[in-house]
Amino acid sequence: METKNEISRNKQQFIVLTAIYDVLNDCQEGDKKTFADPRPIIEGLCECEYDSSPFYVRKLVHLSLEKYAQIRTIIEKQLIDWKWDRLPLLTRSIFLMSYAHYYYYGEKVDKRIVIDVAVELAKKYIDEKQAKFIHAVLDEVLKQ
To answer: What letters, b where the CB count within 10 A reaches 16 and e where it falls short, cover 73-93?
Structure first.
């Protein structure tokens, strides 16, 4: 079992994406989205107690969900011929993770790095076309 210090940043990014995806997949629809507590998901993915999981994972998952409405509104403005709810759930999860990391995480991160991570995740788990779409949208919304 890996401890928080042994989990690479790439694996942490995968864990964040998976946790966001799982929470969105299980959320209750209605006037306002109600998200399940992501702590058990994070514990399962990190294979450790929540408080021992990497800070990066905990913070980015919570920020992505906490700022869901704001991020969705901003991303939707860039969606030409698309609606947020019609996007694949994994694409929405990548947008949430990327935007939250760039704007809310607290430490300065290069726009190119955030986009590169998003594109690599998309290529690995979705497809090339979706990766290009994610790149184009993030390039517009991640302004300095």
So the answer is: ebbeeeeeeeeeeebeebbbb
Q: Where do we find the tokens 């989990």?
A: 7
Rounded CA separation 94/51 (Å) = 24
- The DSSP 8-state label assigned to residue 82 in this structure reads -
Mean pLDDT of 14-30: 86
Distance between CA atoms of 17 and 60, rounded to whole angstroms? 9
Q: Report whether pLDDT(97) > 70.
A: yes
Residue type, 105: Y
Q: Phi/psi of residue 97, each to 5°?
A: -60, -45
- Asked if residues 17 and 93 have their Cβ atoms less than 8 Å apart, the reply is yes
The model carries a pTM of: 0.91
Q: Output phi, psi for 72, to 5 deg.
A: -60, -45
Rounded Cα gap, residues 94 and 80, in angstroms = 18
